Amino acid sequence: MDRRDLLKMIAAATGVAMVGGDLWAADLKSADAGKALFTQSDIAFLDEIAETILPKTSTPGAKDAGCGAVMAVMVADCYELKYQTVFFEGLKTIKALAKQQFGKDFMQTTAAQKHELLSKLDQQAKQDSGKPLPHYFVLLKQLTLMVFFTSKVAATEVLRYVAIPGRYDGNLPYKKGDRAWATN
Fold it and tell me: Which InterPro entries match (predicted)?
């Protein structure tokens, strides 16, 4: 018996409403909810948005850290339904805005066009603060930053990293432009 059949039996026997009931009702069969909610093209789209927010320069960018796939898992597994709804509506809006402004899919726009579009959304999100639910771009940006800066790539190649630090020194010298420290 697979896990899905077992969960159906438990739900039927106890009459307990399962978390994620709308996913259950949609009959999505996957052990990984992130894969069920997001297609590979969705993950590529998330990677592209994240890369626009944190592009590769002399240090790795968001794509190098595999942000899109982790973002998909975080949204599927950790976001409440109301935030998932805001997130998905936001992705649809970004696609529609790219078509409207540039006449092509977001994935086919240039890096400058992507930056222009997301910069406008960032300004709009700042003006929309104080509403009960956050602006979708706030969710995208915060998730991008959190996923990137908790990745191995960022911790070892972007931030300064010492696997086994020496003694504590609360007064390290700092020069403008020094990289921040990663922690384990």
Answer: Gluconate_2DH_su3 (IPR027056), TAT_signal_bac_arc (IPR019546)
Cβ atoms of residues 71 and 139 within 8 Å = no
Residue 172 CA: distances (Å) to CA of 52, 110, 175: 33, 42, 10
Check if the beta carbon of residue 34 is closer than 8 Å to that of residue 75. yes
- Evaluate whether residue 179 is within a structural domain: no
Q: pTM score, two decimals?
A: 0.71
pLDDT attached to residue 145: 95
- Please tell me whether residues 27 and 108 are part of one structural domain: no
Identify whether residues 133 and 42 lie together within a single domain: yes
Q: Which residues contact 141 (CB under 8 A, 6 or more apart)?
A: 53, 122, 125
* Average pLDDT for the chain: 82
Query: Does residue 184 lie within any of the structural domains?
Result: no
